[in-house]
Amino acid sequence: MIAYIEGEIREITAQTMIIDVHGIGYEVICPNPYRFQAQIGQKQKVFTYHYVREDAQILYGFQDQEEKSLFSKILNVSGIGPKGALAVLATSSVQDFVVAIEQEDEEFLTTFPGVGKKTARQMILDLKGKLPFEYREDHLTSKNNAAGKDNHALLEAIEALKSLGYSEREIYQIKLQLAQEQSDTADTYIRKGLALLMK
Q: Where are the annotated segments for Domain III (predicted)?
């Protein structure tokens, strides 16, 4: 298995990045490749999950060991494949997801693409008490993180980001993180959004 790749980031697309390791370009699928945007042209260590099936071998890449570990845990949930696991990591932090599982917050879990109530329940059944991460009761609850759906300032900021040329896909990937700001002003969300999009 390939545990990590260390090389120069040459190219980034909406779903993948190319890492050059001694003249060999590895295509790595990431939850949000734009997190590595600032490292283009630089040497970077990327933690990888080597996914093998009959017709393909695919590398999934992550910024740290925690993201990689959570990805592998989510893959063990019945009905969740690599695309579903990537969608979780693209729109949520590891800690927020752990909080949602431990608090049995189905409302938060169903905000992920392709996750309905049945799948959310299955996630809780399969993962509660089994995730190897610190669970902090004082962490911002997942319901509060999801509360931005009806926040007018947040919606205004999202429209502003679109007008700046960012795609709906890019904005969707940071929406839950933006909601954590819980601000009354669009400017705060815009500044936070730009910071996240340029990571």
A: 149-199
